[in-house]
């Protein structure tokens, strides 16, 4: 049996971003273990299982059809990898309840992934600035207006 080294996990994490940038969503399921848990901290959403993990990525690719992941740096420690990069794309599709704005998004992110010996992600923490997303897509005024009017009626 081949010994799994931390470098293999780091290489798999880089391949994960390449697959996203190539929009190969069918191939993404291979990166997720059957019991994977993906936590998107800014949205407070949890995705359990490989299909839910793929759906979490697909939502971004649908909203940003020209999406790509740039400048990725990966660090490893045991069976855990840490990655930082920038997600870029043009908002041309619905993003949850947010209609297309045709605006560019440039979003730095950080992720922590735990891997099993099958080189699949068992846990993925996704961290980015949610307010930056709102601001870049043109929703800052709406958010501030709602925030400033809370309790004034």
Describe the structure.
Pfam families: SnoaL. This is Ketosteroid isomerase-like protein. One of its GO terms (molecular function) is isomerase activity. It comes from Streptomyces spectabilis. Keywords: Isomerase. With 153 residues, the protein is of the alpha+beta class. The protein has a single domain (6-149), classed as Nuclear Transport Factor 2, Chain: A, CATH 3.10.450. It contains five helices and six strands, in the order ααββαββββαα. The protein has helices spanning 6-21, 25-28, 50-63, 130-136, 140-149; strands at 32-40, 45-48, 68-77, 80-90, 104-115, 121-128. A six-stranded mixed sheet has the order 2-1-6-5-4-3. The protein is elongated and about 55 Å long. The termini are far apart. The mean pLDDT is 92.
Q: At CATH's second level, what is the architecture?
A: Roll
Main sheet attributes: strand count, strand direction, barrel closure: 6 strands, mixed
| CATH overall fold name | Nuclear Transport Factor 2, Chain: A
Strand order of the largest sheet: 2-1-6-5-4-3
Overall mean pLDDT score? 92
- The CATH class: Alpha Beta
Q: Helix/strand/pairing class, anyone?
A: alpha+beta
Distance between the termini: 67 Å
Proportion of helical residues: 25-40%
Oligomer: single chain
> What's the domain count?
1
Instruction: Give the SSE string.
Output: HHEEHEEEEHH
- What is the C-alpha radius of gyration, as a whole number of Å? 17 Å
Low-confidence stretches: none
Query: Care to count the β-strands?
Result: 6
Strand content range: 35-45%
Question: What's the overall geometry?
Answer: elongated
- The helix tally amounts to 5
């Amino acid at each position: 049996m081949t010994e799994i080294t931390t470098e293999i996990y780091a290489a798999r994490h880089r391949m994960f971003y390449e697959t996203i940038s190539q929009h190969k969503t069918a191939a993404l399921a291979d990166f997720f273990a059957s019991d994977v848990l993906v936590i998107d901290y800014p949205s407070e959403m949890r995705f359990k299982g490989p299909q839910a993990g793929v759906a979490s990525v697909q939502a971004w690719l649908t909203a940003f059809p020209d999406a790509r992941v740039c400048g990725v740096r990966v660090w490893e420690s045991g069976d855990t990898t840490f990655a930082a990069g920038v997600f870029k794309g043009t908002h041309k599709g619905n993003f949850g309840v947010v209609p297309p704005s045709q605006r560019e998004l440039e979003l730095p992110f950080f992720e922590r992934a735990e891997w099993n010996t099958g080189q699949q992600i068992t846990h993925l923490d996704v961290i980015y600035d949610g307010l930056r997303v709102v601001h870049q897509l043109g929703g800052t005024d709406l958010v501030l207006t709602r925030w400033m009017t809370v309790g004034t009626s």
